[in-house]
Amino acid sequence: MVAPSETAAPHPASLLVLVMGVLMVVDGPWTFDALWIVLGLAGYLATFVIALLVMEPWAKRINRIVERERHFSPEAAVQTRKFLVVARIDTLVVFFVIVGMVLKPTADDAAALLAMAAVLGAGIALLLIRTRAIGSRT
């Protein structure tokens, strides 16, 4: 296993997608009031915050462990496995955003919104349970 990179800055392609999406709304038939656009922007913000406030400090902590131990120790391996679970949560949020962009739900689409929320919530819960299981194996 290789320790994660210390940089959690958004990938340039991610920023390009955000800019192009905003420009499409400004130039197209949509408004920023549309629920699916609000959900998409909230999801983007969530992944940005997860990267900046959770993943970046965690990656730095893993790299400090590797530097201190002078090898990829069991402690670093456990922390990296947990880090990858958080990365999967981040990916799940991105899939949620993509589904929202495809379905374009409105406030009247209660069933679709509830299904999306249930899948997102269940996925996050399962991944958090997995994180606890990783910690209990040490």
Structure description:
- The mean pLDDT is 87.
- The protein starts with 11 loop residues before the first helix and ends with a helix.
- It has four helices and no strands.
- The protein has helices at 12-27, 35-69, 74-103, 110-136.
- Helix 2 runs antiparallel to helix 3 (74-103) and helix 3 (74-103) packs antiparallel against helix 4.
- The protein has 138 residues and is mainly α.
- The chain has one domain (32-136).
Element layout with pairings:
Layout: H1 12-27, H2 35-69, H3 74-103, H4 110-136
Helix pairs in contact: 2-3, 3-4
Descriptive keywords:
138 residues, mainly alpha, 78% helix
Number of helices: 4
Structure summary, number of beta strands = 0
Element string (H = helix, E = strand): HHHH
Unreliable stretches, pLDDT < 50, 5 or more residues?
none
- Could you estimate the helical fraction of the residues in percent? over 70%
In short:
With 138 residues, this protein is mainly α.
